[in-house]
Structure formats: C-alpha cells, structure tokens
Design a protein that fits this description.
By secondary structure, this protein is of the alpha/beta class. Helix content is about 40%, strand content about 20%. It has ten helices and eight strands. The protein has an eight-stranded mixed sheet, sandwiched between helices. The structure holds zinc ion.
C-alpha cells in the first residue's frame, strides 16, 4: 500500500507540487469519472491528456473504426489499428499510459435510448463527436441528467469550445440555446469540411484543460462560447445567454 502511494506521489509530483493542485486537487482528479463520446481527433487527445493527469475512470464511446484518413490527427492510432474499433483500441492505449485506470468502452452509437446509462455513471461528459445528431442528443441528456458538458467542435483552422451546465443556473444556456436552428439531420461533419492535424489536437487539449479547471475549481465558465482561430492565432470569448424559447432547457 505504501509502495503504491509513493508511486502515485512520484508519478503526479509535478502537479501535486502546484498550489492550485496539491494532494487534495490530485485526489479530486483521481476521483472524477469522465465519459468521452467520440474517439476521433478531439476524443483521442482529450482522453490521452486526462489519463496522463491521473483521471482513472473513463468511459469511451464510438461506433466507428480506425481508417487511414484518421491518422493525420487521431493521436494514439497507427496503421496497425486500421479497421479496428476506435473505442477498443483507445482503451487499450490509455491503459498503457495509466495501468491503474478503470476504462470501459462501448462500440454503440449514442442514441436517445442508450445514452442515459453512460451519462448517469460519470461526473463530466465530453462531446467529441462530429455530427449534429449526436451533439443534440448529448446536450439534451446532459441537461436532463444534470451533468456538466464540455463540448468542442473543430473545422479547418477553427475550434469552438462550450462548457455547459444549463441545469445549474437560470442564466446558463445549453448548446441548443446557442444554436437553436440546428436539427438532428444536419449532417455536415469535420470529415466533410477538412481539418488540419494540429487544430484537432488543440481542440482536444483545450477540452482536457477545461475539465481539469472544473475539477480543481479554477474556472467555471458556463456562459462563454470560446472561438479560437488557429490560423490568425486569435481567441474570442462570446458571452452567451439562455434562450427563453429553448425546447431543451426552458421547457
Ligand atoms: Zn437551452
């Protein structure tokens, strides 16, 4: 037991040494469970850094298989993984980063029928998907299940980040408040639009960073839409408001 404690203290010493983390913060990181929906460019990077930080309980969901055109941005996948299911391969790779991790995976696509069980079991939900159908389902069920949602979207050189807790305060919007006209059959994805490797990685990194900020109580920004233009290196924060007509969070 003492050996394990020493191992963990050494492994996470560069975080524990920080005033903002300390032993207490590191324990909070150990104890937080994360659900990552979508194991592509965003999900691979976010899960990798969260695992390295000490997050040990992860649920990975993706029904897709690794293909050659994923390899410009989906860290941890190699040509040997082509044709295999992303969530299974990612779980295996993450266990090599943290042997103490407790990772479960699903090869299902999230639907209104199955999403409840994944959301209920975890503290924070990451939307790393590339389609509006999944995004709207995740948003709705995070609101119903009272879970913090860390959502990211990437396209070309642009990253969009939104942390939502629409159930938590009367002024906090949900994803649908910001994009009221989105419908589940709007099918454009980043695969159709193009994405450069580093932008995908940065999107996942910002998501992981937002999660750690939340866990450590550093910043709660439930009414900010963050837009990062990686070509111009410009970051904008837009204050977003609850839409009183929202069919998800103002019913
Ligand atoms: Zn709403």
């Amino acid at each position: 037991m003492i050996e394990m404690e020493e191992y963990l203290l050494e492994k996470y010493s560069r975080q524990i040494i920080m005033n903002e983390v300390g032993l207490e913060g590191q324990k909070k990181i150990f104890d937080t469970s994360i659900c990552i929906i979508g194991c592509g460019g965003l999900g691979t990077t976010a899960s990798q850094y969260l695992t390295m930080s000490g997050i040990s309980k992860l649920t990975l969901i993706d029904n897709d298989q690794v293909n050659l055109s994923n390899l410009n941005r989906q860290t941890l996948f190699t040509e040997n993984d082509i044709g295999k299911n992303k969530s299974i391969i990612l779980a295996d790779k993450l266990k090599r980063i943290n042997k103490n991790s407790n990772i479960t995976f699903s090869t299902e696509k999230v639907t209104k029928v199955n999403i409840g069980k994944y959301i209920t079991e975890n503290n924070i939900i990451l939307d790393c998907t590339d389609n509006f159908e999944s995004r709207l389902i995740i948003n709705e069920f995070c609101h119903i299940g009272k879970k913090v949602l860390v959502s990211a979207a990437i396209q070309n050189f642009d990253i969009q980040i939104f942390v939502s807790a629409s159930w938590k305060g009367k002024s906090f919007p949900c994803y649908k408040c910001i994009f009221p006209n989105l419908e589940e059959n709007d099918n454009e994805s980043c695969d159709d639009m193009g994405i450069i490797s580093s932008v995908a990685g940065m999107g996942g990194l910002i998501q992981a960073n937002m999660v750690l900020n939340l866990i450590l109580g550093l910043k709660e920004n439930f009414n900010e839409l963050i837009l990062f233009d990686c070509a111009k290196i410009e970051l904008k924060k837009i204050i977003v408001k609850k839409n009183k007509e929202c069919k998800v969070c103002c019913k």
